[in-house]
TrEMBL record:
Belongs to the YjdM family. The lineage of its organism: Bacteria, Pseudomonadati, Pseudomonadota, Gammaproteobacteria, Alteromonadales. It comes from Shewanella fodinae. Pfam families: YjdM (PF03831), Zn_Ribbon_YjdM (PF08274). This is Protein PhnA. Residues 4-31 form the Protein YjdM N-terminal domain.
Length: 112
């Protein structure tokens, strides 16, 4: 059994050493042993593959999405730049070229 500390970002117990740093395979967080880590109790949003998303990221749509109240469709592979994370069911606020401002669910995108 390992005596390595849990990940300070996602509290995973599957951390491992990589040189002088510790790495979490679940969220990708890296930190130095003995380093004081500030806890950010902010919004945690993960894409369809489990990668953490942050404001300003670029994501790719992984499923055709019908735009409610319109005949428009956001096609698979559409890149969405400069996203903003918000609270709620549709937790990504963005602008899509040719469609305009809209909100997406993080389960239908992957980090680009």
């Amino acid at each position: 059994m390992s005596d390595l500390p849990n990940c300070p970002s996602c509290d995973s117990s599957y951390t491992y050493e990589d040189g002088s740093t510790l790495v979490c395979p679940e969220c990708g967080h890296e930190w130095i042993v003995g380093e004081v880590v500030e806890q950010d109790d902010g919004l945690v949003v993960k894409d369809a593959n489990g990668a953490l998303l942050t404001d300003g990221d670029t994501v790719t749509v992984i499923k055709d999405l019908k735009v409610k109240g319109s005949s428009l469709v956001v096609k698979v592979g559409t890149k969405v730049k400069n996203i903003r994370l918000v609270e709620g069911d549709h937790n990504i606020d963005c602008k899509i070229d040719g469609i305009g401002a809209m909100q997406l669910k993080s389960e239908f995108v992957k980090k680009a």
